Amino acid sequence: MEKTQQINTMIKLETGIPGFDFISQGGLPMGRTTLIAGTSGSAKTVFATQFLAEGIVRFDDSVVFVTFEESPKDIRKNMIGFGWDIQKWEDEGKWTFVDVSPEPGMETLESGSYDLGALLARIEHAINKVNAKRLSMDSIGAIFSQITDSSIVRSELFRIVFALKELGVTAILTAERTQEYGDIARYGVEEFVTDNVIVVRNVLEQEKRRRTIEILKFRGTMHQKGEYPFTIIPGEGIIIIPLSAIELKQKSSILRISSGNAEMDKMCGGGFFRDSIILVSGATGNGKTLMVTEFINGGAKNDERCLLFAFEESREQLLRNASGWGVDYEKLEEENKLKIVAVYPEVAGLEDHLIIMKKEIDKFKPTRVAIDSLSALERVSSIRGFREFVIGLTSFVKHKEVVGLFTATTPTLLGGTSVTEAHISTITDSIILLRYVEMFGEMHRGITVLKMRGSMHDKDIREYTIDGAGMHIGKPFRNISGILSGNPMISAASEVDRIKDLF
Amino acid sequence: MGKYTLKLYVTGQTPRSQRAIANLKEICAKEIENKWELMVIDVLENPQLAENEKIIATPTLVKELPAPIRRIIGDLSDQEKVLLGLDLFPNEKNRSSKGE
Known about the structure:
Chain A is an alpha/beta fold. Chain A contains 17 helices and 25 strands. The termini of chain A are far apart. Chain B has helices at 15-31, 47-52, 79-85, 92-99; strands spanning 4-10, 36-42, 60-65, 70-73. In chain B, a hairpin with a 4-residue loop joins strand 3 and strand 4 (70-73).
């Protein structure tokens, strides 16, 4: 009876680690031991500690930390930066250490047969003392250097894992790996806790470090598959970004808002949708930042709040540019209608940028978000990481029912597409192209709405000009073809009329 | 030489525990005669003592005095290791008796 119940419904324990309960579909298997395997520096200890810390903070559980490697003193010191005051929890009787860390200078001789009965007795004692629900053992490899006979360690670990199961404690056991893709763990540790295995990675990808977590197996229960990026934030700990697990459930609005430019609104069939993502693609100096400025100004006029993430220009440059078009960013900021976040892309990894941006959006609660430019962020990441970032960001923005205007820089002056576009064009609702058009030795500018989900839009490529009052969209280029491919061909006006009459 | 203070940590009354106690008593009787005192600690009854002393394996023999503190794990069936741990050097008589 009890057995069938276990098979059908493996109960999970909510860990409280942000994102983890989502990818694990509920948390760690309750009353079981889960192996966390990772190379050195892959955040195993942080995960093991956070599992306990969240248990205390969120669920008022009592916990036990069995340390094989670092001394309790070091752990207390290292983890205070995450806001986890272990000493305080120890004083409150919530946290108990079982200290198995090696003592320097302590010489141990072996004479005859032995087992790890004392360790098991200590762990059981610690659990019973505080009635612990959660336990972490970190990291198992270190005990193999204290006890030379590894077959004894293996069989004794099996005994410990079994005892934990009997006591109904949900536990984490961390183990080292020698390489990111290869054997699960050293010393064949995975063989005695094979039911549940999680791998954390810290991969060097095109000179950038990228952290991921993967649930390799949870016996008898479901979980999300594949690697999920995560980041470590001071004061908070591990935050897992469940990208591909994001559900497409955001609402869709038919409400339109102004782009800040009346002619642009007309081209889009009446303005942008309330919760859409608009990508503006163009070569350098083509008016992308101007479109952002008009977008913000249009929002401010309508008493909306805008959040501007600038990754290419400093705050001062942005203020100067905007004032050149008659928009006073400083005043808008005073009125609390605008917030400018200007940072260099290089200051953080993309995962961190995503977390920071999400926080800013949550804090400021804007109705419009502009990013100038998205392409700048490409520099600090691999292609895959960038794609995940864009998906994570757009789905978050849409979820908040905020309209997002992102810019992308094309590498060539005439025609061409950027990598950014290739990655995100399917995710965005609208794409606006800004292109240079070479005509009789002169540079003209062309604008077109390539795509506008759920709405009719102008299919023309129109000429536009930029002056001190902003962007002015004019007539379509009637007698030119091949603008988008970067090879404009001018045909005689009569030919255009003749083709027009044919249909 | 001063008196030996020895602590032997064991788990319950297992054959291995008994063996360790017997082996230790035999060695002590032979090598240090009356200059030793032994305390046997069952970690199942006193887990906190094991915690304080950071005992992992059982049986563990801790030589607290004379300094330096030394630990020997196992059922103490390897006499030479035990003597080494106790800073005793087996005399000729003992070595030949071991070989019998």
